[in-house]
Fold this sequence. Notes:
alpha+beta
Amino acid sequence: xxxxxxxxxxxIALGFKKNGNIFEKKFPHFGTSxxxxxxxxxxxxxxxxxxxxxxxxxxxxxxxxxxxxxxxNRLLEKGYRPxxxxxxxxxxxxxxxxxxxxxxxxxxxxxxxxxxxxCKTWGKEFExxxxxTKNDGAQLFSYWQQEQSCKxxxxxxxxxxxxxxxxxxxxxxxxxxxxxxxxxxxxxxIKLYRDAHTAPEKHEAWKETYxxxxxxDPIFSEDCVAYKIGVKPLLKKNxxxxxxxxxxxxxxxxxxxxxxxxxxxxxxxHRGFAEYNPHFEVLFQQRFCIQRSP
Length: 294
């Protein structure tokens, strides 16, 4: 967990420059900077002026704030523009709907919600949040319900160990697969995100149709490009064999059988299946192309 006593060393590792009690890092390509004031009377985190809601998360009162600050630095380094970032976005809903505040929201160039980031401190808090997300959707799926256009959900944590900043960013794809949508026309039992009207229904579709699939790091990894999430070259070195426990594979087989589309002999491998049915090229690219962070 990042704590105040090692926050200065973390900032130096991130490229911040010390000037008295102020640590500052400039982002010339955006004409802006981030800084931290360690003065005893006014300890404060300063975000770029263009970041919306920057005043909502600028204190030293919670260790989670340091994770948010580090994450915003990573976003700017990646190429996300400060005016597309909002902190502690709040939704005002009716008395019968669950509301809340998301740590970080990032919009695309057109102003549509691209992804929502929920930040947690390293360790038990993060592991519990990940477990809760898998079990019932927790905060992230609630935010998705409030921001229907969202494309990705990210659970983020970071820590400073051995003079190195480490992070984890398990991510959920909020978009229906085009091939599944096509199959759903003939099989009304297939649950799609587009037909889910509540957070529990979205979570149910994620678990049943998409096997609860979590991508390790499609946003921050080195070969990812800002605003083009999931678009990567298909490299042989990144291909992974399907494992028996990959539920999404079994689910696709069930769907295909139900629609009389499965024509391979039992001895055919899953790779043979991919080659046999070119319509699933997109699916296999999604399964294989997202590299796992080291």
